[in-house]
Amino acid sequence: MRFTILSAVFILTTAKVSAQTDIAFNFTKKPSVQFSSLTTKSLDDISSTKEFYVRPFITDDARVVGERLAQLETWVRFDKEAGQHWILGAYGPNKKLELTAGGVYGYQVDHDSKKTFSYALPLLQAKILFKEYKPNKAPGFGMVMGTFLPVGQGAFKPAGYGTFGYLTVSQCLGEGEKFLFHANLGGNYLHVDGSNNLIATWGLGTQIKAYKGMHLVGEIFSGDPYIPGTGTSWQAGYRYFFSDLVQIDMTVGNGIAGDVIMPFWYTAGIRIVTEKFLKKKNASR
């Protein structure tokens, strides 16, 4: 219990530190980068303007929030190049569909070590669950489609219009979701300054129940549906479930290969699910 309390304090502290960081608000619009084709150089250019979009876990699971349930996910992430605060809200209109919207704000570290404000929104995403996974049964399947519109400022702003999509598969072994394994395969379709490009993405992840609400998590992925052109990276940490409605997580990660190698990062986040809309539905019957 003491460990989980310290974890929650850490999340609040890091968020407070991020808010109190000396940030220079620079509203000068940067010139756009021209991309004639997706060469190695253009991959570097695209990633240099968007390399900060990394949510806690890149590899998604074949699961939706649930009918008439709403979920708030928020986390902070820091590395040597940026600090960011993500906020995503999701809602399940039925048992098979999850709709998500959100954005990110924070600071980027410029070449002269000056911190400037940056933000991007909206992220729009839909997840469809084809088959739910169950313990020691056949795996579950789902599909995700979404877009991050080029609205914002600074390095967080997407370089152009694009969509992403991927298939997700989840296998559960052991009662109480003792062992979970996830796999994603998809791609980014980008339209940047008249150039159309398709970049493949994939990910493999696992979650292992250690003790009561404590779960160990880890993944390896190549590219990110939110960050076209990034290389292969790993991420590991833990999730703690206070209940089915509240959980926290902490991770660290680092790039290991590719044209663009991600710097070492650490994250801390919280997820909260509300049954408010479900209760309204039951009360109206």
Write a brief structural summary.
It is built from three helices and 13 strands, in the order ααβββββββββββββα. The chain has 285 residues and is mainly beta. It has a twelve-stranded antiparallel β-barrel with strand order 1-2-3-4-5-7-8-9-10-11-12-13.
Explain this structure to me?
With 285 residues, the protein is mostly beta strands. A hairpin with a 2-residue loop joins strand 9 and strand 10. It is globular. The chain has helices at 2-20, 40-50, 276-283, and strands spanning 70-79, 82-91, 97-109, 115-131, 140-148, 152-153, 161-173, 179-192, 195-211, 214-224, 227-241, 246-257, 265-274. A twelve-stranded antiparallel beta barrel has the order 1-2-3-4-5-7-8-9-10-11-12-13. The termini are far apart. The protein has a single domain, classed as monomeric porin ompg (Porin).
